[in-house]
Amino acid sequence: MKPSFVNLGIVAAVLAAGATPPAQASANSHGRACIARVLHSEELPFAPYQYWLVKVNLEITPPDGRAYEVSLHDNLPWQAPPPRRGQVFRVFCDPDNPADLRFIH
Does residue 70 sit within a domain? Predict the structure, then answer.
């Protein structure tokens, strides 16, 4: 599976808010509402000043239940805590295009 790159700043905002309402199927231009669970997260060295450099592996579970994994690698503002293993949040996803994730906030 090819890694995809998504802005983790939105992930941090969602995780910091602690909002994890249940996902519901939706047919809109963003895709379907899916559940994202952090499988692995690590902080890497050499981040720009006032940022974390984070690598995260997510398990994305669409409403049909066929889970797949996505890797993200991006800078995250230092004010937000880095994602932690086991955290769960919602994203709009398209299983036919795994790199297309949009975070629900």
Answer: yes
